[in-house]
Amino acid sequence: MAVYKCEACGMSIGTMTCGTCDQELDHGSITTDSGDEIQVSKCPDGHGMIKSPMCCGQDMTRTD
To answer: Residues 21, 1, 16, CA angle at the centre, nearest 5°?
Structure first.
């Protein structure tokens, strides 16, 4: 099970799933047109992606 954890305060959240197919979201990243890398969570069945969770103003780190 994937867990996202905040390195600043220790808060964590559990598995996130796609609302369409109930599959666990895969961690990944995308690069914007300006060259910035953004952490995302993607549906493995291609139903879309979201920005990965944030806490304390920073991306949470995924641990398995």
So the answer is: 40
Which residues form the domain of 33?
A: 3-63
Size of the chain in residues: 64
Write out the two tokens for 60. Answer: 């949470």
Domain count across the chain: 1
Q: Which residues contact 4 (CB under 8 A, 6 or more apart)?
A: 12, 13, 16, 52, 53, 60, 61, 62, 63
Tokens for 43, please give them. Answer: 């549906």
Per-residue pLDDT of the chain (64 residues; tens, 9 = 90+): 678 999 999 999 998 999 999 999 998 899 999 999 988 999 999 999 999 899 999 988 888 7
> Which amino acid would we find at residue 22?
D
Residue of 49, 5, 4, 55 lying closest to 25 (CA atoms): 49
